[in-house]
């Protein structure tokens, strides 16, 4: 029997803004994302990538049906959902409230869906936090306050919080923002290791060359999905060049694909 997809959206619509500024950003999207794969969502600024990811993560109101690993998301208990679907928001999006917490305690927040009400963290929670902080190379800062860290260091701590959830499906909005090239390469290696363990990773990326290393691509433009499928497919590459108005060209180099400005 085939495994169910990680996420399925049917007739997904999202409107944002208030009053006369309210506008429909996504209109009736249908999308299926494979389980046990890394999917990168790409497209020009304002295409609706973050809105799509935030709707999939259930952090903004939307219309339409969503399924997580074959189960309808809407009736799922919030705690069950939070264990199964972990979410890394875009850098700087509403995270200042955690600035006074230590790095360790920020990562420990990822264990909340696993903890009984008012119960202290278990040995399993501490083990998951240590593993996550080591995976994102943030363990050495565990006693420092989040607010003391640089943008890239902070991003790695928030990544650790997501990893600590140990969710089968992980959604990340611009996880490479503020990361230097070696830490971007570390992130790719981490995602590949997570996928090899059976996790699903869905990430919005602006770094097209890195997105081309994903298993699958979702290419968006103006609130629509123009392509869903393997990242190595030449149809995906032509679609990417088109949505970026042919200002980029995709070339093979050393057994991978690179996107260069024209
Ligand atoms: N709160 C809001 N109110 C009204 N419109 C919004 C709101 N948030 C986003 N939008 C609009 O929705 C559209 C999609 O935005 P979204 O952030 O999803 O795009 P994106 O593809 O992630 O862009 P970027 O690459 O610039 O991050 C944009 O035109 C944006 O102006």
Automatic annotation (TrEMBL):
Pfam families linked: ABC_tran
GO molecular function, one term: ATP binding
Domain ABC transporter: 7-247
Origin superkingdom: Bacteria
Keyword line: ATP-binding, Cell membrane, Membrane, Nucleotide-binding, Translocase, Transport
Any coiled-coil regions, as ranges: none
InterPro entries: AAA+_ATPase, ABC_transporter-like_ATP-bd, ABC_transporter-like_CS, P-loop_NTPase
SMART domains registered for this protein in UniProt: AAA
Role description: Part of the ABC transporter complex HmuTUV involved in hemin import. Responsible for energy coupling to the transport system.
Official protein name in the record: ABC transporter ATP-binding protein
Organism of this sequence: Hydrogenophaga defluvii
Lineage of the organism: Bacteria, Pseudomonadati, Pseudomonadota, Betaproteobacteria, Burkholderiales
